[in-house]
Design brief:
Blueprint (H helix, E strand, L loop, with lengths): L2 E8 L3 H12 L4 E5 L12 H6 L1 H19 L15 H25 L3 E4 L1 E8 L2 E7 L4 E10 L3 E3 L12 E2 L1 H4 L8 E5 L3 H12 L3 E6 L10 H14 L2 E4 L2 E6 L5 E6 L5 E6 L1 E4 L3 E3 L32 E3 L10 H15 L13 E3 L4 E6 L2 H6 L4 E7 L4 H6 L5 E7 L5 E8 L2 H13 L4 H5 L9 H11 L7
Parallel strand pairs: 1-2, 1-6, 2-3, 6-17, 8-15, 9-10, 9-15, 10-11
Antiparallel strand pairs: 4-5, 5-6, 7-16, 12-13, 13-14, 18-19, 19-22, 20-21, 21-22
Helix pairs in contact: 1-8, 3-4, 3-6
């Protein structure tokens, strides 16, 4: 006997579970299907973000940052430590606890909001009168009927051709989070978010880390000034970079991994490492969804085709997050999930792609929103720039972390903020003020006129806004 629902969400990651909760808040009878399992076989909703992405990586970054501070910076504070050691198993165990807390939190939220949760893989069976029949394959098979379906099936790590993930020596983000001991030599292919964050974790703990990047430049999506400052900091820390590297072969048949590549000079080079993290992007996940059963349209990359409102080609079927166009970011998925639930309810859900923040949780942190200076130049936009270094910020000095700066880009005529770019301490938190300001179409002058607490890192934001008009007060 099938179970009837107003809305069925397939996928319990950030886009899916948030969509389910919002739909339930709006009065719909909602079910969410997710198959992710914990190590005991139980449900572990939260998707890649909670289980093998955003959350566990931040836990390991925090642990490794503590170790880095103890090893290299506690002495500056008059704190002496002898025989400093890292218990990797305990560190990974703490990470697992943090993940479980988030899994359990989502299950609690489902219960609180009266969302029916089904643990298993959801797939289309067929279209039926007034909706769709959905199969749930799991410990207990179920058949659901939904008037509306929200697809939030996420993405999978992209493997190198000829070098599949074994999660022992050739690692995706999943395996990179489960390394049991500090490798002497670690290779990373790809200098994006995952590569930089995981490379930073294991470099801090003592690994010799080499990052191979196919692009000739570092962080091409970021502002050039920010990328230059970050690269200088990472190199000083001990991360090794090779840009313009074209991988020709990965051989994991021996004890370690041998990576053959052509460098930017055209020379053939082989890098020998104990473990290799491959972070060359992600692909939309529609495995097992059975889109053919209902005629769901996918694009040439396997992503679900949607319009600006996240509608698919099928009536009553929506898709959000990594499985559709746009940046593969958890907070983008959440915003789309909320917007779709509200659209189903006849409201006007909205997602502004121009104000989605980007963050890399390295040290220094990197965050930005809006357009970069190189984009404004390419588009022929007349702009003014203002920049303020953390070196001149009292709170940053007290923290002992003065790397980086805040940079504002504003329209030359109207002074509207077009982009804000931060490299430095707590950039992930500081960027929120810029996002809010841009949502309200604020000017740099608006931020410059707002009182910021002293001493605080946020004063660097105010000073950068003042710098747009060449009137900084502390630099």
């Amino acid at each position: 006997m099938s179970k009837q629902f107003d809305v069925v969400v397939i996928g319990g990651g950030p886009g899916g579970y948030i969509a389910a909760i919002r739909a339930a808040q709006l009065g719909f009878n909602v079910a969410c299907i997710d198959e992710w399992k914990n190590d005991k076989g139980g449900p572990a909703p939260g998707g890649t973000c909670t289980n093998v992405g955003c959350i566990p990586s931040k836990a390991l970054l925090q642990s490794s940052e503590h170790f880095e501070q103890a090893a290299h910076h506690f002495g500056e504070h008059g704190i002496s430590l002898d025989n400093l050691q890292i218990d990797v198993a305990k560190m990974v165990g703490r990470k697992n606890t943090v993940v479980k807390q988030n899994n359990d939190g989502i299950l609690y939220l489902f219960k609180k909001n009266k969302v029916s949760f089904f643990h298993g893989r959801g797939s289309f069976a067929k279209a039926v009168e007034g909706g769709y029949e959905i199969n749930v394959a799991g410990a207990a098979a179920e058949t659901l009927v939904a008037k509306q379906v929200i697809l939030a099936t996420g993405s999978n790590a992209r493997a190198l051709p000829g070098a599949p993930f074994d999660e022992e020596k050739i690692l995706s983000n999943d395996g990179a989070l489960r390394i049991g001991a500090v490798p002497a030599k670690l290779g990373v292919i790809g200098s994006g978010v995952i590569g930089l964050e995981m490379g930073s974790v294991w470099r801090r703990l003592g690994a010799e880390v080499t990052i191979l990047e196919a692009m000739p430049t570092f962080l091409a999506a970021a502002d050039e000034g920010v990328a230059k400052e970050a690269l200088k900091a990472f190199t000083k820390q001990g991360l090794k970079f090779e840009f313009g590297a074209k991988i020709s072969k990965v051989d994991a048949s021996g004890e370690g991994v041998a990576v053959a590549y052509t460098n930017a000079k055209g020379e053939e080079v082989t890098l020998a490492v104990d473990k290799l993290i491959v972070s060359i992007g992600r692909t939309a996940n529609t495995i097992g969804l059975n889109p053919e059963a209902v005629g769901l349209k996918l694009d040439e990359r396997g992503a679900i085709v949607v319009d600006d409102e996240c509608k698919t080609n099928l009536p009553g079927v929506w898709a959000v997050g990594d499985v559709v166009r746009g940046p593969m970011l958890a907070h983008k998925a959440e915003e789309e999930g909320v917007a779709v639930a509200e659209r189903i309810a006849g409201q006007h859900g909205h997602v502004n792609f121009a104000t989605i923040p980007w963050v890399i949780y390295t040290s220094p942190e990197i965050a930005w929103v809006g357009r970069t200076e190189q984009q404004l130049k390419a588009d022929g936009v007349a702009y003014k720039a203002g920049q303020f270094p953390f070196m001149a910020n009292g709170r940053a000095r007290a923290l002992g972390d003065t790397t980086g700066f805040v940079k504002f880009l504003a329209d030359a005529k109207t002074d509207e903020i077009l982009g804000v770019h931060i490299v430095g301490p707590f950039a992930s938190e500081l960027i929120a003020e810029a996002v809010l300001a841009m949502e309200f179409k604020a000017s740099a002058e608006d931020i410059a006129r707002v009182c910021h607490a002293h001493p605080s890192l946020s004063e660097a934001t105010k000073e950068a806004a003042l710098a747009v008009d060449k009137r900084t007060l502390n630099f």
